[in-house]
Model the fold of this input.
Amino acid sequence: MKPFSHFCMSVRGALRNRNFGGMNHNDGKPMTEYEAFEALCDELAQGHEVVPMGDCDNFDFKKGCLGHEVEE
Done:
């Protein structure tokens, strides 16, 4: 077995740097800059420090991906 971790994004970092590129709605439609800003503010309001950049079934919103074991 080999360890694997998913990428995550710092909510505060994205807000500070205005780095909203590539954020999409659940249906895949790109978010406007305003929609992305609001979505990130909502994440902070929920106490989330980081958000996943993709699907992860072992994610902590303070620490990020907690890791996975994958077959080599």
